[in-house]
Design goal:
globular; 7 helices; 4-stranded antiparallel sheet; Rossmann fold; 7-stranded mixed sheet; 26% helix; 296 residues
């Protein structure tokens, strides 16, 4: 899988504080944990990502098909934004535009002060399919991220081993894809996206093809990684509960063409309890947007 890098942002929430801890890894102090506790989030006035008037149109059978219409969204550094919507609302298209995989669009997508005109190593993307090469080991698949870089070999090996450790795959470095589970394969894909140390992580239904129990476990792992790396993150998902569990804000999209219907804040401390009354209230509120959506 080709790995790209990108950055996202964190919601300002007066009810939550992130405590930043550092630990020594390989002789260096690195940012490790962002632990949400009652309080306030770190203040930041500058947006990592700003979308203004974004439109996207495809040509289908000789006719124009508008997929996105007037998308406006601001994401602050370190924020976890979840995007939900019915199939065909343009969620994945929007993510591809942010990643720079598609540069034909109207409006402005500005990342760290510059208009996005292509891919960049500061923005990383993970797809629903893990896209691993079966003839390569876990270690070799993660190392592929460096193929278009000039990072020295010794540094590549150190960072690959460190990232495999972070995603909980120590001991499986030399395993092939047929020797590990689907959930472990997705961890490899996430490690490959993170090993380049992006500032923005884009996730396109990364757990959509997994069974329910594995999905729940990897949601917890993703939250841990987000806290560990301090990444701005944008997640596209069909799963409203997943969005409430992970997101600082939930962007609800409507279809034909894709528009932002509303943005729902999730002012819950972490770790979040799925059975908590407020968690269920927010979930039920978001689900009302899809109660009358027709199956296409």
């Amino acid at each position: 899988m080709t790995t790209y890098s990108a950055a996202i942002n964190l919601r300002q929430d007066a009810s939550v504080t992130d405590r930043i801890a550092t630990e020594s890894i390989s002789g260096k102090l690195t940012r490790k944990d962002l632990v949400s506790i009652p309080g306030t989030r770190p203040e930041s006035s500058a947006a990592a990502l700003n979308l203004s008037g974004v439109d996207k149109t495809y040509t289908l059978h000789g006719k124009s098909l508008q997929v996105l219409d007037n998308i406006a969204l601001e994401v602050k550094p370190g924020e976890f934004v979840a995007i939900v919507g019915a199939s065909g609302c343009g969620k994945s298209t929007l993510l591809r535009l942010i990643a720079g995989l598609d540069t034909e669009y109207g409006g402005e997508i500005v990342y760290q002060g510059a208009r996005i005109t292509g891919t960049d190593l500061s923005r990383g993307i993970v797809f629903q399919e893990h896209r691993l090469f079966p003839w390569l080991t876990v270690e070799e698949n993660v190392a592929l991220a460096f193929s278009a870089t000039d990072v020295p070999e010794a540094e590549r090996k150190r960072r690959v081993h460190e990232q495999i450790e972070v995603v909980g795959l120590h001991g499986f470095e030399h395993a092939y894809t047929h020797q590990i589970s689907g959930g472990m394969s997705q961890r490899v894909a996430i490690a490959r996206a993170l090993v380049l140390r992006p500032k923005l992580l884009l996730l396109d239904e990364p757990f959509g093809a997994l069974d329910a129990l594995t999905r729940l476990k990897l949601q917890q792992e993703l939250q841990r990684l987000w806290e560990h790396e301090g990444l701005t993150t944008i997640l596209v998902t069909h799963d409203v509960e997943e969005a409430v569990f992970l997101g600082d804000r939930i962007v609800v999209m409507e279809s034909h063409p894709g528009r932002i219907k509303r943005i729902v804040p999730v002012p819950l401390p972490r770790p979040r309890e799925r059975t908590a009354l407020e968690f269920q209230r927010i979930k039920a509120d978001v689900l009302t947007d899809f109660a009358k959506v027709e199956v296409e």
